[in-house]
Amino acid sequence: MTVTLLDRAPADPAPKTDGSLTDNGAALNISLRVNGRDRRLSLDPRTTLLDALREHAGLTGTKKGCDHGQCGACTVLLDNRRVLSCLSLAAMAEGHDVTTIEGLAKPDGTLHPMQQAFIDHDAFQCGYCTPGQIISAIACVHEGHAENDAQIREYMSGNLCRCAAYPNIVDAIKQAKTQMKEA
Amino acid sequence: MRPFEFSRADTVQAAINEQVISDTRTDGASVHAPNQYVAGGTTLIDLMKLDVMRPQSVTDINALEHTPSGEINFGPHGLHLGALVRMSAAASHPDVLKNYPVIAQALALAASPQIRNMASLGGNVLQRTRCTYFRDTSYSACNKREPGSGCAALQGINRSHAVLGVSDHCIATYPGDFAQALIALDAEIEIAGPKGSRTLPFAKLHRLPGDAPHVETTLAPGELILAFMIPSAPWTRRSLFLKIRDRQSYEFALASAAVALDLDGGTVRQTRIALGGVSATPWRSHAAEQKLRGRKIDDATLHEAAEAAFEQAKPRAHNAFKIQLGKLTLMRAMRQAATMELQYD
């Protein structure tokens, strides 16, 4: 965990008198609920949800790939729907439940069936896209979009894997889908 | 990204009041507008990171999901789609799937699942071109981004650029799919703004580039799209969206067709045709529709319609293929529509 970033002194959050949230240059005080835990963060209004998670909440599991909404590495769940944290402002996530890769395993360390399935099927090589793939895959199953290989491929198309582990990712999703139904 | 003021609005009136109307040189949805609404953020945040858009203030309107702008309603008069409805929600709504398949398909074939969960319908129709010369500020010539600076695409790599509705000042392609379904089905939009509310035919929302490509819409500064109304018509159920692209998924159209058809036996009683991926704005082809009305759908008639649709096409060095591709797309879409099985109650 990057202590210097977490301990960074907040900018002056002087409230404005006309009711708007901030002046240019002042920080926003934002409350984010991440993996069931409330966090108070003092952020530049420009901070994306991705940067808030990684640089301010210390949750570096969510990855920054393209930072322009093209690769899916930054996928998180917002109220159980998969979204791109790089194209969301942190301030827009206030009042919503954010789930990241860190929030999937049980407190005793037991992995989510989708995490275990990715290991069982060797569904990654370098691993950089994997947190986004797993979050997206869980949503794909919950949406009912994992009925067959073609549908899985279509509904996972927003997550790029430059190691091209795609066939194994499809296999992992099929395994986890069965286990998620049983659970 | 440059600094901006962030605020939230939970009512339409509050959202409009947040807009400081200081720049009337351009339309409300302009790249240069000092105030921007944000819903999904999938276009705005991207372009702010690229320094193409530099708003001084951003108003978060996502709370309008809890107003009629967050609702989908279907009745005898047609379909109401709130502007804050997400693409994924509209694409999977039973009434949309059954009665307006062209809308469901246009939305489902666009972007990625994550983006469809984020992007609002109102923002979707205002998404900006993917023209490289517009998105990359290291190119100095872009009339859309910097009025009067020229157009780098004219002599550049213009394979993805438009052949219909273009001018010598801009050949950028309108990138969206949903808009083609809306313009085909004679949709109207409900707008609120500092000077009151109004409705507008969707076909009048986007402006051709002409000599002012930076003015992209007819929205006045501060105006906000609240909803889309798509009328009921005999042809909406026999409708579909055909999208041709470089990749099978998660890619913009090289050519697309949104078509709707009302058949009397084998004869066309009415048809609606819009073309995407080939045009500067959402593009209704009245010329193609006229060729088909009252005629049988056969190869000769379809060929005539396709020729009419692209009669005014203006190809550049790298995009002439879009004329033939667009014609074939239109013809294939009509053949599929003529033989599709309809969902009945």
Strand content of chain A: 5-15%
Percent range for β-strand residues of chain B: 15-25%
Strand order of the largest sheet of chain A: 2-1-5-3-4
Largest sheet of chain A: 5 strands, mixed
Helix percentage of chain A: 25-40%
Q: What is the highest CATH level, the class of the largest domain in chain A?
A: Alpha Beta
What does this entry look like structurally?
Chain A is of the alpha+beta class and 183 residues long. In chain A, helix 3 packs antiparallel against helix 6 and helix 4 packs across helix 6. With 345 residues, chain B is α+β, with helices and mostly antiparallel strands. Chain B has 12 helices and 12 strands. A 5-stranded antiparallel sheet of chain B has the order 4-5-8-6-7. Chain B is globular and about 60 Å long. The N and C termini of chain B lie far apart (51 Å). Chains A and B meet through strand 4, helix 4 and helix 5 of A and strand 1, helix 2 and helix 6 of B.
Key structural traits:
heterodimer, A: 183 residues, alpha+beta, Ubiquitin-like (UB roll), DNA polymerase, domain 1, 2 domains, 6 helices, 14% strand, globular, disordered N terminus, B: 345 residues, Uridine Diphospho-n-acetylenolpyruvylglucosamine Reductase, domain 2, Enolase-like, domain 1, 5-stranded antiparallel beta sheet, 4-stranded antiparallel beta sheet, 12 helices, 26% helix
